Amino acid sequence: MLATTEAPNGNMRHGLTRTQEKEETKINIINQMMRTMVSLSAACLADGTYSCYIAG
Q1: Residue 5 near residue 20, CB atoms below 8 Å
Q2: Side-chain half-sphere of 7: how many Cα atoms within 13 Å?
Q3: What is the DSSP string of 9-48?
Q4: Which of 3, 33, 35, 44 is a Cys-bridge partner for 52, taking CB atoms 3.0 to 4.6 Å apart?
Q5: How many other β-carbons are positioned within 10 Å of the β-carbon of residue 49?
């Protein structure tokens, strides 16, 4: 996982170019989606069903 430093108000650290900010936002969204997928997979395994894999 990539670590990002955030200001207390939740804004990304200053000093980044717009492009870097956009890239970081994209990476954060991807990381969040990955974590969600892992959570869903773990829930499906715990559930003993494979419906999420079929749906995916």
Answers
A1: no
A2: 6
A3: TSPBPSS--HHHHHHHHHHHHHHHHHHHHHHHHHHHHHHT
A4: 44
A5: 11
In 3D space, the residue among 2, 23, 21, 1 whose CA is nearest the CA of residue 13 turns out to be 21
| pTM of this prediction exceeds 0.85 | no
Sole residue written with tokens 């890239």: 23
**Amino acid present at 11:** N
Indicate the SS3 state at residue 6: strand
Q: Whole-angstrom Cα distance, residue 4 to residue 1?
A: 10
pLDDT, one tens digit per residue, over 2-48 is 555 555 555 555 566 788 889 999 999 989 988 888 877 777 666 66
Pair of tokens at residue 33: 């989606």
